């Protein structure tokens, strides 16, 4: 006999199901009324038995050819079988017979969504809503969910919000509103909606988790940590909460606490390589380089094709001025991912210390080409040229970078300094004036980077004249 039928049927309906199963087994025709057929189709659809649902619906139409409700059930079965066009043909005929039946429009709307015609679906759904007088909240939720499943959050949101107006105490609707806002990158609205949801259901670990993601995305790392703590307190098996909490703690420079949370995360997940690498990075930030190297090595043992730990080990060796060793690791990281500008930049820094000017310039240049909107790379290459008494080359690099970052104050300051060192006071004054127009510019810092200008009276006069 079929399992779990009591979850779907009362005694009378169960008797209908047994009669139908017996009929199939012995191939003997049997009569069922319309209501019985409807229950049978619903049961088999719920149980994902499309073949039997098809047999029921076809027999139902044979026995009751004029029943609108059974033809609707047959259309549902066809949709389940992926025969949307055939179902649509039936539904359009039914619409001409019974134009006020909202279920016809709902099914047509679902078909249009399946066919990736959401605007057509919306027209049908809105007609169904106008014909709906009872349980409107349920229909609104169903329509919104159909758009949400397609990733059409902007279309789903108004229906969820309309449902919320009808029942402000429905937590499920509030959660979906928050989720849609989150997907639409409307973070403030999403945060407010999740908070409202948590007022109704404070023990939802998923809501606290999503709230933590939003806080972290909006540079509110401490609030993010708090949200993840609530999530973990409710569900101490929510593995991703440990991982995200660790990331948030690292962003707050709370590296020791971050390490603890990463280690807790290791108990749940098999993705040890990246977690070991993150732990290594935390130890690196704490300048506990021996511990950092251990975890980076563990990460490489887990996955030797993972570039992050190779880069981390290379950086530590660079800090320790072990250039020959660091080049091995940095080159391996670069070989694994040659599109990461930081890898090329670190290689440029390493080659500049040997010194191997040609390779240093080549690597710095590659970093700039990969990310021309980070002025750090150009500023460092210009400094390398300056150290080698190539002021004109330094100026050219910074002018090129200024084309991508025209408002960057440090680029303007450094250009002023290099022009002054090249004895072009007019150009120096031009860039100093632009830099000093920015109230956040700390012009005195220029003498830290360029101590040789400390005694340059002309340069100081230009600064004083523009203060």
Give a summary of the structure in a few sentences.
The chain is an all-alpha fold and 467 residues long. Helices cover 75% and strands 0% of the residues.
How many β strands by DSSP? 0
> Which CATH class of the domain at 372-467 applies here?
Mainly Alpha
Number of helical segments with 4 or more residues: 27
Q: What's the helical proportion of residues? A: over 70%
Helix/strand order:
HHHHHHHHHHHHHHHHHHHHHHHHHHH
Structure commentary:
The protein is mainly α and 467 residues long. The chain has a domain at 372-467: Serine Threonine Protein Phosphatase 5, Tetratricopeptide repeat (Alpha Horseshoe). The protein is 75% helix and 0% strand. It contains 27 helices and no strands. The longest helix is centred in the first third of the chain and has 16 residues, at 11-26. The protein is elongated. The N and C termini lie far apart (91 Å). The model is unreliable at 1-8 (pLDDT under 50). Keywords: TPR repeat. InterPro entries: TPR-like_helical_dom_sf, TPR_rpt. TPR repeats lie at residues 171-204, 273-306, 341-374.
